[in-house]
């Protein structure tokens, strides 16, 4: 049972008031600026995909909707290639950081240079290189009293003494480290699967396909909800706990996405305004649930779970798997939303023939439904019966919109299909 008295404390007892020093505030603010730059780098593509100037320049005209649209392969590639680059970087960066140091690794971003110089992880690296006095000096800038700084340095030293090995990649799966690695990997990866990658890359595109008005205004409002929520609830992970937050977040985010998919439908022209409003409302509820659960805990797990020796490597692997999960979403989502890639209404036998003829899946939607077989095809490994006369074949043959030869009823293996 969660006690309200345990959750709420007077402002004078908050850690932000009691423990934060000017250097700590500067470090936190600069880290936030770096995160903002990262957010911009990963989210701008979502807005570009919905811009009329971009879609008319690089898209194709749809005579049915009378609008330009970016093809699914281009959308998928544009979203997935940057993610693939982050995957490569997540493995290379720990190697470079351990060899030349955090400061030089992040030299390209001035904000991160300052943050890394003053963060607790920097103290651990300095201690690992037997520079205790320098580590203590850094720690004292982050703590208001010298006693707390001394105690944390002593704790770090004790942790390093227990693991005097170099900390290789294989150590990630040895002994108790395996459990730590699994925890560090699972939470960020599930975060990507819970909608973080989809919302970051395809929110505007989804709102346009939904038929919602003022897509960019809604997108901006949703980002504001995320910002306000995470600002007001970042303390919950320490007072309520990681596990309750993750369970609540997973359930809420899954339910909201499930309802969104149910009410939005596949054709926006057949979606009523009330259903559109419900879908948009569910997205905002998702944003609130995500901001107070996975958005904070997703970063905490790789930072606090690993051992001191393996923290950088574990964080790199955790980020690698998170981006792999995001890569799956970014590559697959455009095809799932594209009505061209649709097998609805086709029988199993018809699908056998379409695949045997190597027909592109994007042309499946153009095959007339109810057509039982296709000329020259093979069903279940059996060739078409030759008992049908060639004259009858010619009378039944025709061409569908996809350029696929369609025939009438055939007899295969003595059974009419």
From TrEMBL:
Q: Where would you find the membrane-spanning parts of this chain?
A: 216-235, 247-266, 278-297, 317-336
User: Where is the protein found, in the record's own terms?
Assistant: Membrane
> Where does the record place Basic and acidic residues bias?
391-400
The record's listing under InterPro entries reads: MFS_sugar_transport-like, MFS_Sugar_Transporters, MFS_trans_sf
Gene Ontology cellular component terms for the protein in this record:
membrane
- Show the GO MF annotations: carbohydrate:proton symporter activity
The UniProt entry, under Pfam families, shows: Sugar_tr
Primary location group: membrane
Transmembrane helix listed as a keyword? yes
Q: Does the keyword Zinc-finger apply?
A: no
Query: What keywords sit in the KW lines?
Result: Membrane, Transmembrane, Transmembrane helix
Q: In this entry, which stretches build a coiled coil? A: none
Membrane topology per the entry is:
Multi-pass membrane protein
Q: What protein name applies here? A: General substrate transporter
Provenance organism:
Lophiotrema nucula
Q: Lineage of the native species?
A: Eukaryota, Fungi, Dikarya, Ascomycota, Pezizomycotina
């Amino acid at each position: 049972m969660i006690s309200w008295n345990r959750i709420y404390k007077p402002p004078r007892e908050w850690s932000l008031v009691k423990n934060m020093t000017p250097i700590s505030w500067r470090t936190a603010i600069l880290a936030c600026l770096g995160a903002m730059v990262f957010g911009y780098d990963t989210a701008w593509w979502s807005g570009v995909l919905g811009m009329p100037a971009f879609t008319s320049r690089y898209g194709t005209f749809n005579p049915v909707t009378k609008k330009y649209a970016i093809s699914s392969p281009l959308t998928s590639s544009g979203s997935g290639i940057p993610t693939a680059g982050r995957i490569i970087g997540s493995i290379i960066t720990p190697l470079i950081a351990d060899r030349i140091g955090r400061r030089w690794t992040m030299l390209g971003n001035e904000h991160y240079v300052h943050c890394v110089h003053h963060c607790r992880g920097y103290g651990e690296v300095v201690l690992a290189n037997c520079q205790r006095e320098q580590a203590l000096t850094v720690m004292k800038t982050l703590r208001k009293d010298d006693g707390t700084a001394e105690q944390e340095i002593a704790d770090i030293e004790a942790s390093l003494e227990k693991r005097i090995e170099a900390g290789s990649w294989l150590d990630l799966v040895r002994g108790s480290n395996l459990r730590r690695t699994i925890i560090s990997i699972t939470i960020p990866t599930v975060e990507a699967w819970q909608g973080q990658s989809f919302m970051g890359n395809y929110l505007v595109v989804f709102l346009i396909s939904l038929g919602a008005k003022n897509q960019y205004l809604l997108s901006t409002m949703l980002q504001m909800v995320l910002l306000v929520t995470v600002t007001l609830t970042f303390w919950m992970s320490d007072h309520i706990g990681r596990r309750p937050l993750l369970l609540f977040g997973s359930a809420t985010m899954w339910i909201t996405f499930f309802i969104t998919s149910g009410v939005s439908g596949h054709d926006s022209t057949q979606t009523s305004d009330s259903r559109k409003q419900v879908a948009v409302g569910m997205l905002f509820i998702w944003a609130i649930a995500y901001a107070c659960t996975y958005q904070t805990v997703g970063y905490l797990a790789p930072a606090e779970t690993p051992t001191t020796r393996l923290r950088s490597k574990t964080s790199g692997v955790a980020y690698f798997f998170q981006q792999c999960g995001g890569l799956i979403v970014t590559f697959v989502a455009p095809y799932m939303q594209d009505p061209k890639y649709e097998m609805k209404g086709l029988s199993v036998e018809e699908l056998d023939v379409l695949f045997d003829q190597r027909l592109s899946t994007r042309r499946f939607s153009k095959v007339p439904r109810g057509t039982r077989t296709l000329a020259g095809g093979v069903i279940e490994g059996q060739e078409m019966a030759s008992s049908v006369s060639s004259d009858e074949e010619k009378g039944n043959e025709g061409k569908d919109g996809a350029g696929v030869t369609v025939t009438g009823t055939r007899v295969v293996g003595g059974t009419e299909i």
